[in-house]
Design a protein that fits this description.
By secondary structure, the chain is α+β, with helices and mostly antiparallel strands. The chain is built from three helices and three strands.
Length: 64
């Protein structure tokens, strides 16, 4: 049976912590920042956990 391929776009976007949780960056912080409020931009800096139901899909993409 062939090896399972890793989804490279998922690898670039998420990180797995030591305890097994999946961390992600907030979307929307890349460009067009002048029209976004400073409060909103501060919130984009924080790293968030992926919700458990969606984490199952990501684990399958990462081959974990």
């Amino acid at each position: 049976m062939p090896k399972m391929k890793t989804n490279k776009s998922a690898v670039k976007r998420v990180k797995v912590t030591g305890s097994g949780k999946i961390k992600r960056r907030s979307p929307g912080a890349g460009h067009l920042k002048s029209r976004k409020s400073p409060k909103r931009l501060r919130r984009f800096r924080k790293v968030k956990d992926v919700s458990p139901p969606f984490a199952r899909h990501i684990r399958r993409m990462l081959g974990i």
